[in-house]
Amino acid sequence: MKLSISKAGESIWVWLLWGLGIYLALELGPFLIAKQVFNKTAGDLAGPYLAFALPAVVVMPLIWWLRKWEERGASPKRVARGWGTSVALFGVAVVVAVFYSGIELRLMNPRDAIGGFVASVLLSVPIFYFGIYHRALKVISTRATGKQMPRSDGASSPRSLSGIAISGEGFKLAADLSSSISLGPCPP
After folding, report:
1. Is the pTM above the cut of 0.90?
2. Which of 50, 114, 131, 182 is most deeply packed, by most CB within 10 A?
3. Does residue 177 register a pLDDT over 50?
4. CA gap 174, 161 in Å, rounded
5. Parallel, antiparallel, or unpaired for β 156-157 and 149-150?
6. SS (H, E, C) 131-144
């Protein structure tokens, strides 16, 4: 099997190998810095590293599956619900990783972390779900009808990928979503 990044949208295994390989390599840098800053051994940082690797391992197959689901013609609302659930799951997994790592590295008191953890999960799940659901519904519906996406500056852009994609089709929706987010004009 040839591991070409251009073929990554066709096979989940090629997509996972490229996507996770790049993700884990980029994640290694902050942990090497943390090793120096906190004077920890590699064994002490192995648990937090794996905790931060787990969200990608869970969400990347979901993203591939959602893209395939969209290509097969599933309804935009159904695919948007899948995106909302996937992003909410990713957010919860990242919150778990942050709190686990903070407790494991003794940066947080376990008793104090419980309240913050519960509040973080209760706030992040609806924010992530509804935030991505409405945006994904707009992007998927626009893509399904073949229209051009309106840009934040009032012009329209073609449906092409306007960001950097690691694996072609796998990150197309994520790139479309991120390229259309605008914080408004910058103050002078």
Report:
1. no
2. 131
3. no
4. 10
5. antiparallel
6. HHHHHHHHHHHHHH
